[in-house]
Amino acid sequence: MRKIIHVDMDAFYAAVEIRENPSLKGKCLIVGGSPNSRGVVSTCSYEARKFGVRSGMPCSQAWRLCPQGIFVNCNFGLYREASAKIREVFHRYTSLVEPVSLDEAYLDVTTNLIDEPDSMVIARRIKQEIMEATQLTCSVGVSFNKFLAKIGSEMQKPDGLSQITPENAPEILFALPIGKFHGIGSVTAAKMQKMGIHTGADLHKWSATDLVNHFGKMGLFFYNVVRGIDEREVISYRDPKSISCEHTFNEDISDMKELVQNLKDLVERLVIRMHNKNIQGKSIMLKIKYDNFELVTRSVSLTQSTADQKTIFKHAQRLLVENWDESRKIRLLGVGLSRLDLDSSTSEEQLFLDI
Ligand code: TTP
Ligand code: MG
Fold first, then answer.
1. How sure is the predictor about 42, in pLDDT bands with cuts at 50, 70 and 90?
2. Active-site residue flag, 104
3. 161-163 β-sheet, strand order
4. Is 43 touching ligand 1 by the criterion CB < 6 Å?
5. Is the CB of 79 under 6 A from ligand 1?
6. Ligand 1: which of 12, 106, 130 to mutate, most ligand atoms within 8 Å of CB?
7. CATH superfamily of 242-354
């Protein structure tokens, strides 16, 4: 049986901000931008969550829900620094660390660098060492697969530690709302609700064949996961599938010239990032978000990989001209590349030549 640990920092960006400015402690802190900006909430303190403020919500809405909230901008440098420190702690115990985001990672400690058979002992040490290194709390789940470890880390937030064993897993899985299962997003959850599946217990009643008929290959995953079976491995390095840059405008734009200039800037930023990572890509993608938040993405595939600024801009511009409904204002523009060639030895040379 594997030993998996999932670590998730508590109210991460907000906790870092409070550490830097302790007078914010106990207050409704909202991180992401000013109340009248067009930004969205990145995260907020638990006090602000009581008012219904959530990640991803427009700041203006957060302000209506919680007018006493204190709004601060993101300080990504600080978050990255804390993130590097927690990863350093993880690597004291295992090299099998899969970071999911700056504040979250899976660890496989089945065999580990301190030869400790009890994963709860490792989990406690990790919590303490993260506190010492960052003065921040985290929540940790310990189990025998990734899904259950993640459920465990959510169970007693903040500063939680939970273990899910083969013995207590069925009870926890049966009581779990369907939307909490891995791979079940809002669309699948809504479909399941219509089929009368509201909890793990409901899901458990369905046969593998019926689930596959309704949900394709994921149906089999759902069948297994509600039985505590999740074979996904902890992968310590994953190739990025795409790379992109996007920008939300301060004011919606409907002028082609202005859009093209913005696109040019985005491509420039993208190419610098690609250069830093030594990446080329074959498929160029353009993302348009209209003022009503409707999202349109279009892509074009090339015969050869590229990191060339002019080539990327030329294709992205064409995608913009061909797909923009000119009667509508644009709120956000994004450009990216997928079908990547990683570590391509020619990219650097080509990049310099073409720029
Ligand atoms: P989460 O772990 O989802 O949230 P959290 O750490 O703030 O709170 P919790 O205690 O519930 O774990 O995300 C980690 C950080 O990622 C979060 O602090 C801010 C950032 N983030 C965004 O910028 N936008 C988002 O929509 C989400 C969900 C997170
Ligand atoms: Mg978190």
1. very high
2. yes
3. 97-101, 104-108, 4-9, 138-143, 161-163
4. yes
5. no
6. 12
7. DNA polymerase, Y-family, little finger domain (3.30.1490.100)
